[in-house]
Amino acid sequence: MRRVLGLALVGLFAFLLVVGLLAQFYAPGQVKKTPLDVNTITNLSGTGSYLGSAAGPVSAWQRTVNVASKSTSDVIVMQNFTCAMKDPSGNAPQSPVCLPAGDQNLISASEDTFAEDRVTAMAVNDAKYVGGAQPHQGLVNKFPFDVQKKTYPVWNGVLGKSVDATFAGEDTVDGLLTYKFQSTLQNVSADIATDTPGVYSDDLTMWIDPVTGSFINQTEHQVRALPDGTVALDLTLAFTDATVKENVDAAKSNGSQLGIIGALPLVSYVLALIALVAGVLMVRGTTSAKGDRDEAEIDRLIDLRKGV
C-alpha cells in the first residue's frame, strides 16, 4: 500500500509540475488581455464656458462598447460615444442619453470607432477591423497590463494623433496604488472644431492601475481659442466620485484574480517538490522494508541448513 501511495505522489508531482509550467508560461498570455465583453460608462463633471458664455457646471459621459462581430482573439474593436453638456440645473441627461443637436446646453456629442491590440493596448488601424474610420495612434482607452514607469503615447482626438504622457509618480486613490501620468500641451495649432482652425491647450492627468492598465481617475483642463485669441471653449472635467469608486473596485477585483494566477506557479512548484520527496521516501521505504524481509528469510534458511 505504501508503495502504491508513493507512486501516486510521484504522479502528482508530474501533474503539479505541468500546472506550474502552464501557469508560468501559458496562462499570463491568455488572461492578460483586454476582455471581449467591454461595456463601460464613465461619468464626468466639472465647469466650463462655451462660445463666450459664463462659466458654469458641466456634465459629461462616455460609453465604450466592443464590437463583437469584428473582434478577434488578438484585436478588440470598440465604439466610443461621448456627450458633454452644460448643466446649470444639475439635471443633465444620464448615459446613454444626450441632448439633441441644436440644444443650447449641448457642448459636443461624438462617436468614434477604434481597434486595439488586446495585449499591448496599442491602436490597430487595419481596415478589416475599423473600415474607413479615422486612424488612431498610441493608447486609446487603457494602458497595457503591468504598466511601466515610462512615457507612453496616448491618443488625442483633437489633434488626431498621439501625444506623450509622462510618468509623474505614484499616488493612492481610495486605497489603490496608482501610477500618475501627465500630458501637457500649450498653444498648439489645431482644428478646434470642424473646419475651424485655432489654438489648443490641454492639461491632462491620468491615474492608472499598474496591474490592469485601467483608468482609475482623470482630470483635464482644455482651452480652445480662435486665432484672434477669442476663447471658444474653456473646459475642466474629472471623473465623478462614483465612477472613481467603480473603477477602484473593479481594479482591486481584477488585480486579485491576476495575483492568484501570478502566485500559482510558485505554489505548484512547492507542492510538486513536496509530493516528489514524499513519494520517493515512501517508495524507497517500501523497497528497504522488503529488502530487510528478504535478508531475514535468507538468514533463517542458513540457520536451518546449519542445523541439518
Description:
- The protein is an alpha+beta fold.
- The protein folds into 2 domains: 2-22 and 262-307; 35-258.
- 32% of the residues lie in helices and 38% in strands.
- It is built from 4 helices and 11 strands; from the N terminus they run H-H-E-E-E-E-E-H-E-E-E-E-E-E-H.
- The protein has helices spanning 2-25, 27-31, 127-130, 241-307, and strands at 39-50, 56-66, 75-86, 106-117, 123-124, 152-156, 161-173, 176-193, 196-208, 215-225, 231-239.
- Strands 5-4-3-2-1-11-10-9-8-7-6 form an 11-stranded antiparallel beta sheet.
- Helix 1 (2-25) packs antiparallel against helix 4 (241-307).
- The model has no long low-confidence stretch (mean pLDDT 84).
Average pLDDT figure: 84
Strand content: 35-45%
The count of β-strands is 11
SSE arrangement, N to C: HHEEEEEHEEEEEEH
Please compute the radius of gyration using only Cα atoms. Answer: 31 Å
Structural class by SSE content: alpha+beta
Any idea what the shape is? elongated
The domain count comes to 2
Strand count, sense and barrel status of the largest sheet are: 11 strands, antiparallel
Task: Give me a quick take on this structure.
The chain has 308 residues and is an alpha+beta fold.
What are its keywords?
32% helix, alpha+beta, 308 residues, 11 strands
Question: What's the SSE blueprint?
Answer:
Blueprint: H1 2-25, H2 27-31, E1 39-50, E2 56-66, E3 75-86, E4 106-117, E5 123-124, H3 127-130, E6 152-156, E7 161-173, E8 176-193, E9 196-208, E10 215-225, E11 231-239, H4 241-307
Helix pairs in contact: 1-4
